[in-house]
Write a structure and sequence with these properties.
- Keywords: NAD.
- It comes from Blastomonas marina.
- Residues 5-248 form the NAD-dependent epimerase/dehydratase domain.
- InterPro entries: Epimerase_deHydtase, NAD(P)-bd_dom_sf.
- This is NAD-dependent dehydratase.
- By secondary structure, the chain is α/β, with parallel strands linked by helices.
- It has two domains: 4-180 and 224-247, 3-Layer(aba) Sandwich (Rossmann fold), CATH 3.40.50; 183-222 and 251-285 and 302-320, UDP-galactose 4-epimerase, domain 1.
- It is 39% helix and 16% strand.
- The chain has ten helices and 13 strands.
- Strands 3-2-1-4-5-6-11 form a seven-stranded parallel β-sheet, with helices on both faces. It has a two-stranded parallel ribbon with strand order 7-10.
- It is globular.
Length: 325
């Protein structure tokens, strides 16, 4: 019998790639989102457009016992959206409401396996002040002190999913994503993440010019290529380990280093100009010891390999956009 999957947030970057992966494995897939994917036709068998904050709509789309449910839907964006403070109420209310609705509907339909995408943003700010030695080991989450309301909502929702495991015998799985990037993601408009923003800025720059980078550029991060993210996600949901567990790369780089890598990939004569802007924490890097121990797997692709593919795609998209002007 054909297996079935529900992907909430299927119109987004990670959701779009996940649908493609599940279809390649022979699943019947229903995608759900507020919008269709911006950069590719969906491969889902059924795609429901609607608002997961609406309980009635959620009950309509969770109308059967899916073998696997992936809950990726959230109100989110890059640093310019999450860390300014201007969107805090929306971020917390919208994402929490989605999680409450989706999880309860799955419980009432007796669906067991639900994946929840949390974020490294839930780690305590005080463990991420040293850009060279951030601590993102899973059990360092408490005492809790995320640096943003986005992180606080993620922490609440992690506990929500694991409480349903304990109280209702569900088999929810929780992953903490660390900066996922790749082709077919948002690359302009203010909600794009750092790798996409760097690629766009470099693609638009001319030799002899410069690109702007927020802060002093010495803040550190790690970035995970989308294919690795999807592999870790499906492995976790099908495992006996509930999490929370990091799904991220442990290859740390400064933001200025990321900019310089993209400039080198593009083979352009462009300099980096640091300006004031929202930063998030000083340092963040995935700790992959737990995922290696529990799943026997960890991401292996280098950042450079992923950035080469991402830059090629964004440079092409930027050229298309300019030609349409």
């Amino acid at each position: 019998m054909q297996k079935t999957a529900l992907v909430c947030g299927a119109g987004g970057f990670i959701g779009g790639h996940l649908v493609k992966r599940l279809k390649s494995e022979g699943f019947w897939v229903r995608g759900v989102d507020l919008k269709f994917h911006e950069h590719a036709e969906t491969e889902a068998d059924d795609f429901a457009i609607g608002d997961l904050r609406d309980q009635r709509f959620v009950r309509e789309v969770v109308d059967q016992r899916f073998d696997e449910v992936y809950q990726l839907a959230a109100d989110m964006g890059g640093a310019g959206y999450i860390f300014t403070g201007e969107n805090d109420a929306d971020i917390m209310h919208n994402s929490a409401t989605i999680n409450l609705n989706v999880l309860d509907a799955c419980h009432k339909r007796n669906i067991k396996r639900v994946f929840y995408s949390s974020s490294a943003c839930m780690y305590p700010e005080h463990n991420q002040l040293d850009p060279d030695n951030p601590n993102c080991v899973e059990d360092s989450a408490y005492p809790a002190n995320p640096d943003s309301e986005y992180g606080w909502e993620k922490l609440f929702s992690e506990r929500l999913y694991l409480a349903y495991n304990r109280n209702y015998g569900m088999e929810c799985r929780v992953a903490r994503y660390h900066n996922i990037f790749g082709p077919l993601g948002t690359w302009q408009g203010g909600k794009e993440k750092a790798p996409a923003a760097m690629c766009r800025k470099v693609a638009e720059a001319h030799d002899g010019g410069s690109i702007e980078v927020w802060g002093d550029g010495k803040q550190t991060r790690s970035f995970l290529y989308i294919d690795e993210c999807i592999e870790g996600t499906t492995k976790l949901l099908r495992s006996d380990f509930a999490g929370p567990v990091n799904i991220g790369s442990d290859e740390m780089i400064t933001i200025n280093g990321l900019a310089e890598m993209v400039i080198d990939i593009a083979d352009k004569d462009v300099s980096v100009h640091n300006i004031p802007g929202p930063l998030g924490v000083r340092g963040r890097n995935s700790d992959n010891n737990l995922i290696k121990e529990k799943l026997g797997w960890a991401p292996s692709q280098t950042l450079r390999e992923g950035m080469e593919k991402t830059y090629a795609w964004i440079a092409t998209e930027a050229k298309k956009r300019d030609n349409q002007k």
